[in-house]
Amino acid sequence: MSTLIRPTDTLTRDALTVLQPGFVGTSAPDWLLRRIGEGLASVGLFGRNIASPAQLAALTAQLRAERDDVLVAIDEEGGDVTRLEVRSGSSFPGNHALGAVDDTALTRDVAAELGRRLAACGVNLNWAPSADVNSNPDNPVIGVRSFGADPLLVARHTAAYVEGLQSAGVAACTKHFPGHGDTAVDSHHDVPRIGVDHEVLRARDLAPFRAAIAAGTRAVMSAHILVPSLDPEYPATLSHRILTGVLREELGYEGLIVTDGMEMQAISATYGIERGSVLAIAAGADAICVGGGLADDETVLRLRDALVGAVHRGELSEERLADAAARVRALAHWTSVSGAADRSGGAPDTEIGLVAARRALTVTRGDSYTAPLTEAPYVAAFTPMANIAVGDETPWGVAAELERLLPGTETGSFTGPDAGALALAEAGERRVVAVVRDAHRHAWMAEALHTLLASRPDTVVVEMGVPQSHPQGSLHIATHGAARVCGLAAAEVITVG
User: Fold this and answer.
1) Do 255 and 227 meet the contact criterion of CB atoms below 8 Å apart?
2) Among 80, 260, 286, 438, the one annotated catalytic
3) In this structure, are residues 99 and 349 in contact, taking their beta carbons and an 8 Å threshold?
4) CB 287 within 8 A of CB 313
5) Contact at 8 Å (CB) between 141 and 183?
């Protein structure tokens, strides 16, 4: 790997400062500590980096021994997208559950407690909340990560979440600008396109970001989406018209602009991460997020040298790179001051997540409902393929909680065209609890549920995705998310009523 300029050079330090890389392991590798010493100001954490709160606190202390104001970022939305509790499921319901309750004080309290836990582990930047308006119910990547389909509801809860999170001294990074809710493509795999005019975008998709900015969000994350009415050529992450023209100039935002992961196919497969990073900084982004997949020293050096080389070739102004680096350092300063001030105050509220999950339930009892379950059932989980943001390593469903409440509960996971028949065969004579997730998006899942209910109308149905269909079964519970606490809340209703 070539080095264009000495690591102590101001230009090279600025190029390192704007990077937010990830790494592999539960302790900081030597290369990462070395780059922090050379000017790297941010580090991104993922589920692979976290084993326990104590381990995470030790890891962040290790990073701060090298640089006391380093930004330690994480993708901790709560709900379906969790890194703190990647192996157990989240103690907090996600945005869709909070939107279903529609109590902004509750949203603020949940975000504040989540922020307190992050701060206690030494994390000071959260790539959350999702401010996307879920206007397309078939969206494959947002769904329950959104507060809902109503722009005004999403706006007020986005603002409450930002206020709650930042009250704990953890910077919010509101995403995915200018709004990823009206897409039918996952930007992890390709470039989504939103084909509505600017007026629709202003009224619908931009409303939550205006609210977040008014609430003081310290960071905003761009989306790798093409919005032809704003820029027919470049996706938002690489668009000067969108990042500078709309976000900076039209909305008046002055904080940090962070890109979504540059190794996502929407960027890496079309522009490449080096050119993409140069275009993003030139467009107005301040920090390059990379590390979900590419998490090594070579990637950091490639991006550092790409930025430095672009300045030398006149493709990127040195002033723009310096401005981006200054915004990163300004946020680092804010988090160090806010953390030192212990802004959260008060005692931990360890039950707030479960309280919110219980309130988020929509329970419908059918004509065949008689009483709560008292004998161990068979749980048939109809399991769709998880999107990359959620991942497939985090458990979901109600089986574990039902087993705790009704020992002897058994479960099976089913997918595909024969899922319903297979579930019936495995269940035998036992009462069936069917668990689905976004059944409206998966024809095989809807058919499996139909098969199951035709034979066993006393089936209990737990919908853990975005509920779109008419309630079915003797008991239908919409949890508005698949967090562990959502499963616990549903299991309580099934067994207690």
Assistant:
1) no
2) 260
3) no
4) no
5) yes
Please name the amino acid found at residue 241. R
Asked whether the beta carbons of 213 and 251 are under 8 A apart, the reply is yes
Confidence grade of residue 8 (pLDDT, cut at 50, 70, 90): low
Point out which residues pair with 435 in neighbouring strands.
Answer: 381, 462
CA distance 207 to 71: 28
pLDDT in tens, 343-390: 445 567 789 999 999 999 999 999 889 899 999 999 999 987 654 555
Residue 335 has pLDDT above 70, yes or no: yes
Q: Dihedrals φ, ψ of 267, to 5°?
A: -110, -50
Query: Per the confidence metrics, is the pTM higher than 0.85?
Result: yes
Q: How far apart are the first and last CA of the chain?
A: 63
CA 488 to CA 486: how far, in whole Å? 5
Residues 6+ apart with CB under 8 A from 88: 394, 395, 484
Is 367 one of the annotated active-site residues of the chain?
no
CA 51 to chain centre: 19
Model confidence at 139, pLDDT cuts 50, 70, 90, reads confident
Can you say whether residue 448 is alpha, beta or left, with left for phi > 0 and alpha for psi between -120 and 50 degrees?
alpha
